[in-house]
Every structure is written in C-alpha cells, then in structure tokens.
Amino acid sequence: MDHATPNLPARDFSATSRFYAMLGFTETWHDAGWMIIDRGSLRLEFFPYPELDPTTSSFGTCLRLDDLEAFVAACAAAGIAVASKGFPRLHRPAREPSGLTIGYLVDLDGTLLRLIQN
C-alpha cells in the first residue's frame, strides 16, 4: 500500500523518544542520523536538528486518527497542558469551518501536529 511518513526535526533523539513514548509511540529504528517511531499504523520519522529554535519552527504534519479523543486523553495523561504558548502544548479538538474536527499538539521542538478525526 502506498503511504507517506513525515520527516520531522528533533533537537535530541532521546528526549523526543521519551516524549512520544508517553503518547504510546515506540521506537522502531534509531541511529545517529535517523529515528523512527510507531503507534499502531502511525509512523513518524525524525532527523537530528540540534540547533533548531522551537519558537521559529515551521515544521508540521497531520495525524488522521480514528479515535481523536483517545489520543487527546493520552496527551492529557502525559501531562501536556492545554495552552496557547510553550512547548509542548495541546489545543483541544473543535469542529472547524471545513467540517473537520481538529485538535493541535505542539511537541518539544515546536513541530505542529494537526490531530484530525477520521
């Protein structure tokens, strides 16, 4: 089956791995130049970017989820605050003008993950 995987920055692979592990992701590949994590059928791939400034990051991706509320609950259980500033942070899902229900997660490195209910 055709598929795409986002390639995202990580200032520190260990910190990124620990953060996403709290959300149910497991590391499936890790070397000095690349890290892959999976959560069910979701896959995120990371490259090292130690000099990244999270406040100016423009990296992002969409996670299309069958159970958006369960993923948001995992974020809450991990202690990710609902906030408009800071890293990491969560914006609760809402119905948008597009008709889609979308939440937003900003990770440790300022990457925006749009959380879209399938």
TrEMBL record:
<keyword id="KW-0046">Antibiotic resistance</keyword>
<feature type="domain" description="VOC">
    <location>
        <begin position="1"/>
        <end position="118"/>
    </location>
</feature>
<dbReference type="InterPro" id="IPR000335">
    <property type="entry name" value="Bleomycin-R"/>
</dbReference>
<protein>
    <recommendedName>
        <fullName>Bleomycin resistance protein</fullName>
    </recommendedName>
</protein>
<comment type="similarity">
    <text>Belongs to the bleomycin resistance protein family.</text>
</comment>
<dbReference type="InterPro" id="IPR037523">
    <property type="entry name" value="VOC_core"/>
</dbReference>
<dbReference type="InterPro" id="IPR029068">
    <property type="entry name" value="Glyas_Bleomycin-R_OHBP_Dase"/>
</dbReference>
